[in-house]
Amino acid sequence: MLEVSQEEFESLVADGLDSLHDEMLSKLDNVIFLIEDRPADNSPTLGVYEGFSLAERDIYGYGEEPDRIILFRENLLEHCADMEELIAEIRITLIHEIAHFYGISEERIHELGWG
């Protein structure tokens, strides 16, 4: 497994977000990005979106808790062979989870080559 400190990993995620097109980020509303070591179910997933996608926002009310995009640090480190692959996989995972925020299905994400 790659050895990357928590601080360095957070910096890589911030860099990944900075590398995305402004249009992709412009409609993110009430969304927070988190890093956790592993999912509660210990699955190998690299990231997850939790919340109401834009397609579901008609049921979204005032004062809602923020939607969450979570990247799983240890899973990403285990999944990648080197730093170059880790940087690319963080970006892909961010795009994948942001796509879910926009209501894009898992099937469509794969058709577009985003996951």
TrEMBL record:
InterPro entries found in the cross-reference section: Zincin_1, Zincin_1_sf
Any Pfam family: Zincin_1
Lineage: Bacteria, Bacillati, Actinomycetota, Actinomycetes, Micrococcales
The name this protein goes by in its record: Metallopeptidase family protein
Superkingdom of this protein's organism: Bacteria
Protein species of origin: Leucobacter coleopterorum
Gene3D superfamilies (alphabetical): 3.30.2010.20
